[in-house]
Amino acid sequence: MEHLQASLFDQGDEIRQAPLTGLARTELSDGAWIEELPGWLGGADALFARLRTEVPWRAERRRMYERTVDVPRLLCFYGAGEPLPHPALTAAREALSAHYQAELGEPFVTAGLCLYRDGRDSVAWHGDRSGNPRRGSRGPDPEGRGAREDTLVAILSLGEPRDLLLRPRGGGRTALRRPLGHGDLLIMGGSCQRTWEHAVPKAGGARGARISVQFRPRGVR
Ligand SMILES: O=C(O)CCC(=O)C(=O)O
Ligand SMILES: [Fe+2]
């Protein structure tokens, strides 16, 4: 089957990557862009089910003003050199690193996994502008490379689609809306983390769970 680039067999679940040559680019403003390949990963629903049960998901709490509140989604971060929870994710990271070698000049090394349990889970407007955790300190660097340099963040979406919104930093113009799930791939590139923001807003009604896997280079988070 020549349209399939890679194939992994794991307990009967076949996970297939479509060729990354199918990625389509949309230029945004100020040197930001996105590339998209809907349905990049075949077998994504089986991968979703495995990750949902096998990843050691953690709830985080964050100080907001005078209160400490639950972050409304579950997280698991895999730093550089840490084995990923499924070989399909390692294969995805390697394929993305190879494809963007010329543009990025370095590999994707970390994987941030987020679980949106239902429509009440969300992430507020932000750019990936912080850094990786420092040894012996709590939390990421206050400022990472995404705050100063062009970079790439690749998002693989599994499970039920949720909208990823993108808008120029500080709002103003109407946001772009991309429903992402079931193996869809979206890459944010150029100045996207500095000059644009993204969010996954709360969704009304009963919504199924979604897992987002973000691959990033060193020093971006
Ligand atoms: O759910 C998503 O795909 C976006 C997650 C995100 O932007 C982040 O964790 O930085
Ligand atoms: Fe983000």
TrEMBL record:
PROSITE patterns according to UniProt: FE2OG_OXY (PS51471)
GO molecular function terms attached to this record: dioxygenase activity
InterPro entries documented for this protein: AlkB-like, AlkB-like_sf, ALKBH3, Oxoglu/Fe-dep_dioxygenase_dom
Signal sequence range: none
A Pfam family assignment: 2OG-FeII_Oxy_2
Keywords of this entry: Dioxygenase, Oxidoreductase
Annotated ranges, domain Fe2OG dioxygenase: 107-219
Compositional bias per record (Basic and acidic residues), positions renumbered to this chain: 138-147
UniProt-recorded name of the protein: Alpha-ketoglutarate-dependent dioxygenase AlkB
Annotated segments matching region Disordered: 125-147
